[in-house]
C-alpha cells in the first residue's frame, strides 16, 4: 500500500480507479456529495474538475498493483485571512480495502501536509452519527456544531451533519 499526493501527470491513469472509489463509496451509503452513485461520465467530470482545482491537494492510496483504493483531499482557503486553516474532504476507502488502516493513513498524510503548510486549524463535516464521525473523534477532532437537515442521504432523507475541528501543533 502506498499513499501519495496525486500529480497532474498521473491524473489520467488514476482516473478510472478514483471513479470506482467514488462510486463504491456512494453505493455504500456514504455522504460525499452525491445521492446516488454517479454515472461513469459524471464521476469522470467531477474528478477531472476536482483534480484540476488550484486550491485542492488530493491523495491516493494505491494497492500493490497500483490500483487506487482510497483518497482524501485538503482544501486550502485562498483568503488572506484564512491561511492558517484547511478543510478535510472526501475521505473515501473502497469497501474491499476498509478496516485495514487505509483511511487512518490517508487522514494522517493530509494532516502532516497541512502542518507543513502552516494550516494548523483543520475543519471537516461528516454525517452526524455516521461511522466516520467516530473515526474522526478517535483522531482528535472535536464537535463544533451540528447542522440539522444538511444533506440528503442515498435514501432521499435529509440528515444532520457535524462540523468538527482539530488544532494541530503550531
Ligand atoms: C470512513 C472510511 C474512510 C474509513 O476508512 P478505513 O480504511 O476503513 O479506516 P481505518 O481502517 O483506517 O480505520 C480508522 C479508525 O476507525 C476505526 N473504524 C473503522 N471502521 C469503523 C467503524 N465502522 N466504526 C467505528 N470505528 C471504525 C478503526 O478501528 C480505526 O481506528 P484505530 O486506528 O484507532 O484502530 C471508510 O469507512 C469509508 O470510505 N467510508 C465511506 C466514505 C465516508 O463516509 N467518508 C467520510 C466522509 S466525511
TrEMBL record:
<protein>
    <submittedName>
        <fullName>N-acetyltransferase</fullName>
    </submittedName>
</protein>
<keyword id="KW-0808">Transferase</keyword>
<dbReference type="Pfam" id="PF00583">
    <property type="entry name" value="Acetyltransf_1"/>
</dbReference>
<feature type="domain" description="N-acetyltransferase">
    <location>
        <begin position="1"/>
        <end position="169"/>
    </location>
</feature>
<dbReference type="InterPro" id="IPR050832">
    <property type="entry name" value="Bact_Acetyltransf"/>
</dbReference>
<dbReference type="GO" id="GO:0016747">
    <property type="term" value="F:acyltransferase activity, transferring groups other than amino-acyl groups"/>
</dbReference>
<keyword id="KW-0012">Acyltransferase</keyword>
<dbReference type="InterPro" id="IPR000182">
    <property type="entry name" value="GNAT_dom"/>
</dbReference>
<dbReference type="InterPro" id="IPR016181">
    <property type="entry name" value="Acyl_CoA_acyltransferase"/>
</dbReference>
